[in-house]
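Person: I have long wanted to understand how a fold can be written as tokens. Underneath my words sits a plain record pairing an amino acid chain with its backbone structure tokens. Those tokens are not coordinates but codes from a learned vocabulary of shapes. I should like you to check that the lines agree and flag anything odd. The protein I mean follows directly.
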Amino acid sequence: PWDIHDLTQTVRTALEQVRLERANEKLAANNQRRLAALELLHDASAGPSGLQSRAEYVDSVAARIGEIVTADVVATVLRLDAKSPAVSSIRCLEAISEQSLAELQDTLSGTFAKLAGYEVPAGTLLTRVSGRVLPGSRTARISKLKTFALGSDSEVFGLIAVGSVVSQAFQGAD
């Protein structure tokens, strides 16, 4: 009563439809994350009574980045001009160890030097840390760090970094 070729084609078509539906769900989720990121950037730029500086804008974005990406730490490094000191802000969204914090500070300083094209003199990076930092090394280390330059091709004035203790935390679309 059934033709084996028709049955095979029906099963293949059904499997392809399931694959396409799953791919569509992934694309829709990715689009939602991107839309949320754009909304965050827009909201930060139109923040309360207008932000006065790049530093305030970057700080506003960093404060809300956990709404878009699951992260354990969000950090920024800014040096707006040659006369001002470099300033680092590290937000621990989850508890990290003192050891992880020290490693992160070294990584941020080195990455900023590469991106900006100059070193921040040792001991001059002003750092503000918020969140929980535990003594010693009782928590997992930051194993995944995504860093983004702030500025233009000709002048980098800072960076923003998002870190996680989970090595598979960020995907290419994040």
Q: What stands out?
A: The mean pLDDT is 83. The helical segments are 4-45, 54-64, 98-116. The chain is about 40% helix and 25% strand. The two ends are 51 Å apart (CA to CA).
